[in-house]
Specification:
Layout lengths: L1 E5 L7 E3 L5 H12 L1 E8 L5 H12 L3 E4 L3 E7 L11 E2 L4 H12 L5 E4 L10 H9 L3 E5 L3 E7 L4 E2 L2 E2 L6 H12 L1 E2 L1 E5 L7 H8 L4 E4 L2 E5 L4 E2 L3 E2 L4 H13 L9 E7 L6 H8 L3 E10 L2 E9 L7 E2 L2 H5 L4 H9 L4 E4 L12 H11 L3 E5 L2 E5 L10 E3 L5 H10 L7 E3 L12 H8 L3 E5 L3
Parallel strand pairs: 2-18, 3-16, 3-17, 6-7, 10-12, 11-13, 21-22, 25-26
Antiparallel strand pairs: 1-26, 1-27, 3-5, 4-5, 7-9, 8-9, 13-15, 14-15, 18-20, 19-20, 22-24, 23-24
The structure holds shikimate-3-phosphate.
């Protein structure tokens, strides 16, 4: 297992392309696998999470071939998957497990979905409940966690369902099961969640309608092959948006430009929150790429101020809070986050783990059940040096790496192999942009 060492200081500048979007890459694999015909995926994120999805479909008879520019997928059709003959190991990936549970519920064969220790702690009742209501047979382990055992050959009935929380994973799970159900399945969204599933199912030829917060699709539809161009992941870019904002300004220093980043309106909360904090972020060259809006993003250092964050802000920036908390720690005044209890059931309890890490670096934090309050330290050294436990959470590790830009002494972050779940090559890219970081064998 590697840990990160980050030296204090440095700045971020130049042009950087972060890897492909994780959510879009998962869906590109899943939908092309069950489509009729050959799809090409460019910009696919070759991270541990997305490769877990790919391997699951390989185990079910789908062929993936890499050529110079793309991943070529020969779809087997909606009913063409074959029994995997072994449990499908989805590693750390909540998206793989929750979306696949919906898809597997509609298959003719049995399947078992497993994951690592972190994934096996995460709540799965949120997919077991609607799938059971549709007539699926899906059994979790103690506490309704993974492994999930799904019995195939059930006949599914469409449902009308309101998830208990706004979640793209629950919504997508129900819609994918709905493709195999009799009747029209409707999901009433209790809040905003990322809409990549709806966009991409549409691109693959599925008729899906939206009426306000209700999304409906009729069962029995087939998917037709489509070429997906995956944008760079805004969730990975978020660490650099924060890093380039908090780095000390240098005369004549080049700004940081992040190219081809997805700015889907259901995901772009981090840009709007940083904007409200006073960040200097400009979007240029805005365009559309295979049904998703993308832009180049230019970031310069800025003096940030604390803000109140709650409600819809949380839904639109659900994965970006580890990075946003680092920005808040460098801002003038307090940042108060509420309505964010969902952060406690991500890859780690991101409220508790971030609060502990910030406190270890000398930042004043108070924790509430659904959020926290951070008192910013706008001085040049907002953080002391120190030791951070990432709790095997990729986004915790990358967020604290950026704290080095405003630290007075080195920061060491443990268990950083998990960064590969979403951002392979992070150390090289961050180093090329100006962060003084290296990865070492832990305890060496
Ligand atoms: C994801 C949805 C989000 C997000 C996760 C990826 C997706 O989870 O946190 O990293 O690809 O659908 P929820 O929608 O369950 O909040």
């Amino acid at each position: 297992m590697r840990c990160f060492h980050v030296q204090p200081g440095g700045t971020l500048g130049g042009t950087l392309q972060v890897p492909g979007d994780k959510s879009v890459s998962h869906r590109a694999i899943m939908f092309s696998a069950i489509a009729d015909g050959r799809s090409r995926i460019t910009g696919f994120l070759e991270s541990a999470d997305c490769l877990a999805t790919l391997r699951a479909f390989e185990a079910m008879g789908v062929s993936f071939v890499r050529d110079a520019e793309s991943l070529v997928v020969d779809g087997v059709g909606r009913d063409g998957l074959t029994p995997p003959g072994m449990p499908l190991d989805l590693g750390n990936s909540g998206t793989s497990m929750r979306l696949l549970s919906g898809l597997m519920a509609g298959q003719a064969f049995d399947s078992v979905l497993t994951g690592d220790a972190s994934l096996s702690r995460r709540p799965m009742g949120r997919v077991i409940d609607p799938l059971t209501a549709m007539g699926a047979h899906i059994a979790g382990s103690e506490g309704r966690r993974a492994p999930l055992r799904i019995t195939g050959g059930r006949s599914l009935q469409a449902i009308e369902y309101t998830p208990p929380v706004a979640s793209a994973q629950i919504k997508s799970c129900v819609l994918l099961a709905g493709l195999y159900a009799k009747g029209v399945t409707t999901v009433h969204e209790p809040g905003v969640s990322r809409d990549h599933t709806e966009r991409m199912l549409g691109a693959f030829g599925v008729a899906l309608s939206r009426d306000g917060a209700a999304l409906s699709l009729a069962g029995g539809q087939s998917l037709r092959a489509f070429d997906v161009a995956v944008p760079a992941d805004l969730s990975s870019a978020a660490f650099f948006l924060v890093g380039a904002s908090i780095a000390q300004p240098r005369n004549g220093a080049e700004p940081l430009t992040l190219t081809g980043v997805g700015i889907n309106p259901t995901r772009r909360g981090v840009i709007d929150i940083l904007d409200r904090m006073g960040a200097d972020i400009t979007l240029t060259n805005t365009r559309e790429q295979a049904g998703e809006p993308v832009a180049d993003i230019v970031v310069r250092p800025a003096s940030l101020r604390g803000v109140d964050i709650g409600g819809r802000d949380v839904e639109l920036a659900i994965d970006e809070f580890p990075a946003i908390f680092i920005a808040a720690a460098c801002a003038q005044g307090k940042t108060r986050l509420t309505d964010a209890a969902e952060l406690r059931v991500k890859e780690s309890d991101r409220i508790a783990v971030m609060a502990d890490g910030l406190a270890a670096l000398g930042v004043e934090v108070s924790v509430q059940p659904d959020g926290l309050t951070i008192t910013g330290r706008p001085e040049p050294h907002s953080f002391t040096g120190g030791q951070i436990h990432s709790h095997e959470d990729h986004r915790i590790a990358m967020a604290f790496a950026m704290a080095g830009l405003r630290a007075s002494a080195p920061i060491e972050i443990d268990d950083c192999d998990y960064v590969d779940t979403s951002f392979p090559g992070f150390v090289a890219k961050a180093g090329a942009a100006g962060l003084v970081i290296d990865a070492r064998e832990q305890g060496a």
